[in-house]
Amino acid sequence: MQNVVRVLSTLALMGAVRSLAGRYEAAGGARIDADFAPTLALLDRLRRGEGADVVILTKQALDDLAAQEAVAAGSCVDLARSYVGIAVRAGAAHPDIATESALRATLLGARAVAYSRLGASGIFFAQLIERMGIASEINARACIVPQGFTAERLVTGEAELAVQQLSELKQVKGIEVVGPIPLDLQSPAVFSAGRLAASKRVVQSDALLKYLASPEVAPALHESGLEP
User: Fold this and answer.
1) Percent of the chain with pLDDT over 90
2) CA–CA distance, 151 with 145 (Å, rounded to integer)
3) Inter-axis angle of helices 39-47 and 59-67, to 10 degrees?
4) Using one digit for the tens of pLDDT, what is the confidence trace for 166-222?
5) Which of 37, 45, 66, 107 is the most core-located residue (most Cβ within 10 A)?
6) Selection from 37, 28, 29 nearest residue 55 by Cα
7) What InterPro entries would the database entry show (predicted)?
């Protein structure tokens, strides 16, 4: 199927890609066949030989693939920035996370915190609680999610707080986003896209990459919790 572009994307872009796919195809673009998973899981699948045309990953991961010539370096485009945030179950009180000391008290006071094992947000959070000196206390009762949306653990009652990219938290119904972890404690994750060197759909893939990096998609990125 020449007019189908196979996309492997990090979960952070799921909302945006899904909202854009229909209008892109309606405007004459290729149909987007997308699959979503954390960056590390996608890298493992690519190493095992899974095929695709376009990949959307963290900028660092994409740059590494380009350096290995697995991704066509000239095709790479930066798409969006994302911050890590915290969510609670819908209707629950919103805890204070405005400062480092408030965040520390909120995390230590939570019955259980859900965070990702493989995603960029989970790696950041594990490093953050280590720096804050509260890793052992948090991990003793944490709900560490192998992959997928951490906020689903709020709905099931397994966790009281969920930590993930804001755009990923917003994908789950029945929860409320409290806000970002204080910006002075984090650097935004940058997500980028590129064409796999082995892709046979060069024209279609490059057209999709040009579209995803265009100002036209900015509203969809904003709506999904990302910054173009």
Assistant:
1) 94
2) 10
3) 20
4) 999 999 999 999 999 999 999 999 999 999 999 999 999 999 999 999 999 999 999
5) 107
6) 37
7) ModA/WtpA (IPR050682)
